[in-house]
C-alpha cells in the first residue's frame, strides 16, 4: 500500500514539476534568436515563423490547471494517502470525517436516507400510528443483533413485532405514492429473479397468482422479506429408488391429470406418498404454508409439473433460497415492497 502510493505520488508530483518547469522556461528563458524582420528564420512553403507570446487566455487556463492540481492534492488524500488524509471532510454518523470514496458514499447514502425517511413518514406511511410499531421493532432489532450485551429478544419476538405492521401495509395498498415507491424498489432488488412483471420463472415464484408457499397475507409477505426463506425438499433417490420415484410421481401426477394414468403404479405411489411425503404435503397433497410445502393439487409448479421434472425433483430434491432483505433494505422499504407485492397478487386463493 505505502510502496505503490509513494510511487504514484512521486510520478504525479514529478509530472507537475516537469510541466510547470517547461512552461516557465519557455516563457522566460528559452527564447529563439530572431531575424531583423522578427521571424525565427524558419520558413516552410512560403510561411515564416514568428515568435509571438502565447495567448493570455491559454496561459490563464494552463496556470489555473496547475494551481488546481496543488489545491486538489491538499484537499484530498492524493499525496501518499496512507499518511496524508487531506483537508476535505464529509459528515458520517453525525461526525466530520476525512474524505475518502467510502466515506463520501456513506455520507451520500445517509443524506438520501434522510430524504427517504422524511417522505416515508410524511407522505407514504398512511397510518401514522404505525411509526411507534416501527420504532419498537428497530429497538428490538438493535438489542437482538447487538453482540456486546445480553438480549432477551428472540427471533419469535421479532417476527411477532414484524407481523404487527401488517395493517399498516394494507393501508399503503391504496396509496398510489407508496405503490409507486414499492414498484421502484421491486425493479431495483427483486426483478432479477421474479422478473420485471413479477411473473417469476423456473425456480422463482410467480407473485401475481393466488398460490403462496408461505402465505399471501401482508404479515406473511413482511416476514418473507425480513427473514428470507430456505427450501428443504430432500432428495429421495436413495430411499425410494427409481421404481419408487416413478410410482410416487404417478400418484402426484394423478392430482392434476386424471387421464393417461397407470392406476396400478399410482396406487403404489399413493402408499409411498402417505408414508414419506404426507408429513410435509399432507395426505391430500395440499401442502402447508407454515413450512412452505407446496400444494401439489393446484397445477401450479415452481420447477415444472411434467413427469420428467417431477422425477428430477424427487431424485435430487430442491434447495431454493430467498434471501433476507432486512439488513439491506430496512423496515420501511420492506413495508413499501410488501404493499406493492400484495396489490400485484391474486387474493382469491386460500391463505391469501
In short:
The protein has helices spanning 2-28, 56-75, 101-124, 130-145, 155-163, 166-172, 176-189, 191-194, 218-227, 237-256, 263-281, 307-316, 326-344, and strands at residues 39-44, 47-50, 89-92, 95-98, 229-230, 321-322. With 352 residues, it is mainly alpha-helical. The strands form three sheets. The protein has a two-stranded antiparallel ribbon. A two-stranded antiparallel sheet has the order 3-4.
Categorize the overall geometry: elongated
- How widely separated are the two ends? 56 Å
Q: Residue ranges: pLDDT <50 for 5 or more in a row?
A: none
Percent in strands: 5-15%
Helix content: 55-70%
How many distinct beta strands?
Answer: 6
Topology:
Layout: H1 2-28, E1 39-44, E2 47-50, H2 56-75, E3 89-92, E4 95-98, H3 101-124, H4 130-145, H5 155-163, H6 166-172, H7 176-189, H8 191-194, H9 218-227, E5 229-230, H10 237-256, H11 263-281, H12 307-316, E6 321-322, H13 326-344
Antiparallel strand pairs: 1-2, 3-4, 5-6
Amino acid at each position: 500500500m505505502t510502496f505503490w502510493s509513494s510511487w504514484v505520488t512521486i510520478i504525479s508530483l514529478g509530472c507537475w514539476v516537469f510541466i510547470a518547469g517547461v512552461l516557465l522556461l519557455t516563457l522566460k528563458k528559452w527564447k529563439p534568436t530572431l531575424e531583423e524582420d522578427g521571424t525565427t528564420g524558419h520558413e516552410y512553403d512560403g510561411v515564416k515563423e514568428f515568435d509571438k507570446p502565447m495567448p493570455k487566455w491559454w496561459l490563464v487556463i494552463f496556470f489555473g490547471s496547475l494551481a488546481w492540481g496543488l489545491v486538489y492534492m491538499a484537499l484530498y488524500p492524493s499525496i501518499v494517502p496512507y499518511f496524508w488524509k487531506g483537508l476535505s471532510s464529509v459528515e458520517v454518523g453525525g461526525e466530520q470525517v476525512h474524505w475518502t470514496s467510502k466515506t463520501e458514499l456513506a455520507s451520500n447514502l445517509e443524506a438520501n436516507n434522510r430524504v427517504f425517511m422524511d417522505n416515508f413518514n410524511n407522505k407514504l406511511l398512511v397510518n401514522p400510528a404505525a411509526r411507534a410499531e416501527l420504532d419498537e421493532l428497530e429497538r428490538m432489532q438493535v438489542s437482538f443483533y447487538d453482540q456486546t450485551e445480553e438480549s432477551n429478544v428472540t427471533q419469535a419476538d421479532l417476527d411477532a413485532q414484524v407481523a404487527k405492521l401488517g395493517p399498516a401495509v394494507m393501508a399503503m395498498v391504496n396509496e398510489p405514492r407508496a405503490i409507486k415507491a414499492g414498484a421502484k424498489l421491486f425493479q431495483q432488488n427483486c426483478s432479477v429473479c421474479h422478473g420485471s412483471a413479477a411473473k417469476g420463472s423456473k425456480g422463482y415464484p410467480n407473485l401475481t397468482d393466488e398460490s403462496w408457499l408461505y402465505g399471501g397475507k401482508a404479515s406473511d409477505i413482511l416476514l418473507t422479506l425480513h427473514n428470507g426463506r430456505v427450501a428443504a425438499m430432500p432428495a429421495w433417490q436413495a430411499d425410494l429408488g427409481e421404481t419408487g420415484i416413478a410410482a410416487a410421481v404417478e400418484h402426484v401426477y394423478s392430482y392434476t391429470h386424471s387421464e393417461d394414468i397407470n392406476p396400478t403404479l399410482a396406487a403404489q405411489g399413493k402408499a409411498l406418498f402417505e408414508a414419506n411425503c404426507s408429513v410435509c404435503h399432507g395426505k391430500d397433497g395440499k401442502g402447508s404454508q407454515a413450512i412452505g410445502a407446496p400444494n401439489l393439487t393446484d397445477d401450479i409448479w415452481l420447477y415444472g409439473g411434467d413427469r420428467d421434472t417431477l422425477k428430477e425433483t424427487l431424485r435430487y430434491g430442491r434447495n431454493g433460497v430467498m434471501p433476507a432483505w432486512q439488513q439491506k433494505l430496512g423496515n420501511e422499504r420492506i413495508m413499501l415492497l410488501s404493499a406493492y407485492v400484495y396489490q400485484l397478487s391474486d387474493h382469491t386463493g386460500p391463505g391469501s
